[in-house]
Amino acid sequence: MSTLRFHAIKESLAYKPVKIEEVERRSEIFGKNVFNMKTMRQYLTKDAFVGVENAVQFGKKIDRNIADQVASSMKDWALAKGVTHYTHWFQPLTGATAEKHDAFFETVGDDLAIEQFGGSQLVQQEPDASSFPNGGIRNTFEARGYTAWDPTSPAFIYGTTLCIPTIFVAYTGEALDYKTPLLRALQAVDTAATAVCKYFDKNVKKVTSSLGWEQEYFLIDKTLAASRPDIMLTGRTLLGHTSAKGQQLDDHYFGSIPNRALNFMRELEKECMLLGIPVKTRHNEVAPNQFEVAPIFEEANLAVDHNSLLMDIMGRIASKHNFKVLFHEKPFAGVNGSGKHNNWSLSTDTGVNLLAPGKTPMSSLQFLTFFVNTIKAVHKHEALLRAVIASASNDHRLGANEAPPAIISVFIGEQLKKVLEELEGVTKGKLSPQEKTELKLNVVGKIPDVLLDNTDRNRTSPFAFTGNKFEFRAVGSMANCGNPMTVLNTIVAKQLKDFKKEVDALIDKKDLKKDEAVFNVLREYIKSTKDVLFEGNSYGEAWEAEAKKRGLSNSKSTPEALKASISKETVSLFKEMNVMSEIETKARYEIEVEAYVMHIQIESRVLADIARNNIVPTAVKYQNVLIENVKGLKEIFDKNFKNVAREQITLIEEISNHIEGINSNVTKMIDERRNANKLLEMDKRAEAYSKKVMPFFDEIRYHCDKLELLVDDEIWPLTKYRELLFTR
Ligand code: ADP
Ligand code: MG
């Protein structure tokens, strides 16, 4: 009997839900472990508080004296909560979060020790940066990096550590993390959007980008997961025959959340409350053992930090509940994948959501302006948006069951499409008073009503307008939202900047009124962006053909998709918007390409190992049982044995064929890997891994999965899909 698998199954069945102490009201513990504005008001002097407030709201620099005060108060607050260490918490380009803990504890003179934490330690640290990816930046420049305090995301306590959100940059200033370019992109969109808002409301001083992510994930029994080397090493199953019962019945989606999982969620939510992560929604997803958690949306930088933090604590809490969380976009073949919808909008400091139509025709025109400009930005940069969601793991999801395709298009619903069509007919140049009134009252003015009963949904769209926000649905569940948010905000910023230039030109040179100019520019945008709008089924082959005609890109693999992230246009876009220098843009590309190669390389090695060291020996073992059986039959039935042993003999042959299939394909795959590794240029190597190595995954898997159906269940070594997916 395959001991590990059966031992794991036995153990997994014995797990009981872990008891959770519920608090009386969650709202009472919300943000209790966060050094937020409310706490700061309590702990900081007035000067220090105003200093931080100015930094948060207007990006003003915090001087040394204020930093010292903040640090000292932060320390007092943390010590009172039993904290012993502090860390600069950051998001290097590995996809995980990083921290290096230092104790507050210091010795001063002989025998004397105190708790110390000064402004300099708060503001800047130098982690051992050599192990984080830098895309060659630190080979050409100074070989050091440092972390610097980001006051816009409040410090928090996790366990007994005070975590200070920071950016991570090279000594020469280049960004080495996700946060730095994001902060620059948010600045860019603030500047561009505020300028455009002034057409409609002079009082607007700041525009903030909001993000509400929806995190999908699988919860797999910890022991069962540990029995599968592929899950442990790659986050997904590289083989495994589909379970007889999968998600066909959709009974998981509508069913109640199983108890063990529910208790995990309750503890997770409680921890989120303490950390100020406003999680609100929990539910089952389409696949068995698949779930989703979503918060109330927040300012984008904070939301990105909260998502990274959530992913981190989910792993730890899951382990306490004897689960392993799988964030991989496609952990199981033939089963729904996981995404992370990024719900995005822009709002003003006067409290207006720029992607929600207002009550007056003027505010609806403002809505329309931001709505159409976003569509225009997506159209112009569709390839870059595809690039920013590209990863080895998301490649498996895009275009599969319940997931958007690799073609970026925008869904706005039939009603809004009609509104745009009407606007196409706006007269060129000056508008008659009648036309203006007609437009404002009967076209633009009607939008709020249109939206109210327009609950159109399209689950196949990668970028959908959903009433008062856009939902970027193609983002992978494993991704750091910082990346897609950086790109989205940057392209919209650039678009708004261009829009303003065009409108101003019409006002200055053609003597148009403000609203006339806006209508005129929007009309042209609507005409030129039709190709990116798609309301139909994005899964169909018809759409692939249609999208090609429309000139939309359709990059099926990461190496192909990533090319758009270093195109001339992209480099100059990031440069112009002060989001990334050419060096930074190119370094990121290098890192992503290399990550892709490593990812596929590891998967390929693990697959070869399992196939040769687990599957083949098991098949041989079972084949020997059959051979013994046939020999026995021959003894009993003598010449007539072939009749009685026909099935067994066929099985023996089939098993031999599959063993041969595995061995020859593994050999060929390893050869291709060797060839790929000889390629010195990383993008060539990535392409070789994608085109030459990866195709063997399916071949090898095919034979292994066939054997799973043939070989005695009692000796099959790998925990099966039905066990992984239906144990709860
Ligand atoms: P679903 O897409 O599953 O129907 P909802 O639309 O209710 O779910 O919300 C999904 C996410 O969108 C939540 O995190 C929610 O807070 C967020 N969201 C709602 N309104 C906005 C907005 N104006 N800007 C950004 N995110 C938003
Ligand atoms: Mg959604």
From TrEMBL:
GO biological process terms on file: glutamine biosynthetic process
GO molecular function, one term: glutamine synthetase activity
PROSITE patterns: GLNA_ATP, GS_BETA_GRASP, GS_CATALYTIC
Pfam families listed in its UniProt record: Gln-synt_C, Gln-synt_C-ter, GSIII_N
InterPro entries named in the record: Gln-synt_C (IPR040577), Gln_synt_N (IPR008147), Gln_synth/guanido_kin_cat_dom (IPR014746), Gln_synth_cat_dom (IPR008146), Gln_synth_gly_rich_site (IPR027303), GS_Type-3 (IPR052725), GSIII_N (IPR022147)
Domain GS catalytic: 178-615
Domain GS beta-grasp residue range list: 84-173
Gene3D superfamilies for the chain: 1.20.120.1560, Glutamine synthetase/guanido kinase, catalytic domain (3.30.590.10)
Family: Belongs to the glutamine synthetase family.
Protein name: Glutamine synthetase type III
